[in-house]
Design goal:
- 2 copies of one chain form a homodimer.
- The first copy, chain A, is mostly helical and about 190 residues long.
- Chain A has 2 domains: about 45 residues, Orthogonal Bundle (Arc Repressor Mutant, subunit A), CATH 1.10.10.60; about 120 residues, Tetracycline Repressor, domain 2.
- Helix content of chain A is about 70%, strand content about 0%.
- Chains A and B meet through α6, α7, α8 and α9 of A and α6, α7, α8 and α9 of B.
- Chains A, B: GO terms for molecular function: DNA-binding transcription factor activity; transcription cis-regulatory region binding.
Chain lengths: ~190, ~190
C-alpha cells in the first residue's frame, strides 16, 4: 500500500480494515464476505473487490497493517529468552479472540491472495528474526543457518496450535525455544 | 467403519473411496464434491451424505483406509534413524500427487468432520510412534516425554510443507530428526 497517510485512500483503507476486524470479532471467519465488509465500512463493494480482490486479500492487508513496518523481534539478552518471547507472541496472536492470524491461515487454504500474503509475511518476519541469531553467533557453532534454527524453534507452536488444534500451552514457548537452542549448540543447523 | 469385509457395505465403501481418489487425482481438492464422487462411484448421493456427511468425511475415510490398522513406525535400529524415516514418510505423503493428506488438511479448515478425523488420525499415529521413543529410553534422560519429542521431531516438516508451502527438502527429514534427538539428549523434553 502506497497511500498517502491521511489522504482519502488511506481513510477508505482504515474504514475497510476496521470493518474486517469488527466482522471477524462478531461473526467469525466463516461468515466474512466482501459484501458484509463493504456494507459495514460504508463503501461500494466494487471498491473492495478492485482493491483487495477477496476475503484473503482483506485479511492479508489487516495483518500487514497490524504487524506494521516497525515490528522487531524481542531482545531479552539471551538467545533462548528471545526465542521464548517470540513464541509467546506467536501463541498469543494465534489464540487471540478474534485472531487475524488464525483467520489468515484458514483463508490461505481457499485464497491465493491470502496464501501469498501469508508467505510474504512469514518471510518478512523470519528475515527480521535473523537478528536474534546474529546476536548469538558467539554461542553457536560456525555455519549455523539462522533460518533453519528459527523455523525449528517456532514450528512446534504452529504444529500444535494450527494443525493439532491444541489449546495454548504456557510451557511450550520456552520448551520449543530451549530445544532449538540445544539442537543448534549441538550443530544440528550447521550448513557448510 | 464396521462393515463386514466383502459385504455390500464394504463394496460400496471401496467404490466411493476409489472415486474420491480418482476425482482428487483428476480435478484436485477444490473441485471435490459429494455429487461428483457419488456419480463416479455409481451410488446415490444421499447414500454418500448419510454415511460420510461431507467432503471432509470422505477424505477422512480415505485416509483411515490408506493408513490402515497395520501401520507401524519405522524400526531402523536407532532413534535418529527411526525419526528420519518417519519424516520421509510424512514428506512423501504430503508431496504425493494427489496427496490425500494435503487435501485432508485443507478440508480441516472448512469441515468439522475433516478436522476431527485429522486430529484422531494424528493422535493415533503419535500414539503408535511412542514405541520409537520407548525403544530408545536407554539413551534419553529419565522423564523424557515421548509425545513432546515426537511432535518436535516432526513439526518442522509440517510447518515448512503445509504453512510455509516450501517444496520437499531432501535434507529436512534428517535435520529435524537429529535436532530433536540432540534436544532430547539435553533434557529439553523431560517432564517430571
Amino acid at each position: 500500500m502506497t497511500a498517502r497517510p491521511g489522504g482519502r485512500t488511506a481513510r477508505v483503507r482504515a474504514q475497510v480494515l476496521d470493518a474486517v476486524r469488527a466482522e471477524l470479532a462478531e461473526h467469525g471467519f466463516d461468515a466474512l464476505t466482501v459484501e458484509t465488509v463493504a456494507a459495514r465500512a460504508g463503501v461500494h463493494r466494487t471498491t473492495v473487490y478492485r482493491r483487495w480482490g477477496d476475503v484473503g486479500g482483506l485479511l492479508a492487508d489487516v495483518f500487514d497493517a497490524t504487524g506494521g513496518d516497525d515490528w522487531s523481534p524481542p531482545d531479552t539478552g539471551s538467545l533462548t529468552g528471545d526465542l521464548t518471547a517470540l513464541n509467546h507472541e506467536i501463541q498469543d496472536a494465534y489464540t487471540a479472540e478474534p485472531s487475524v492470524m488464525a483467520a489468515l491461515i484458514a483463508a490461505s487454504f481457499r485464497s491465493e491472495a491470502a496464501e501469498s500474503a501469508q508467505r510474504r509475511l512469514w518471510d518478512d518476519r523470519y528475515a527480521r528474526c535473523e537478528a536474534v541469531v546474529e546476536r548469538a553467533r558467539h554461542v553457536l557453532p560456525p555455519g549455523t543457518d539462522a533460518r533453519r534454527l528459527l523455523v525449528a524453534a517456532t514450528a512446534p507452536l504452529y504444529h500444535r496450535l494450527v494443525l493439532l488444534r491444541e489449546p495454548a500451552d504456557p510451557l511450550l514457548p520456552g520448551e520449543a525455544a530451549r530445544a532449538a537452542v540445544l539442537a543448534a549448540e549441538g550443530g544440528a543447523f550447521v550448513r557448510l
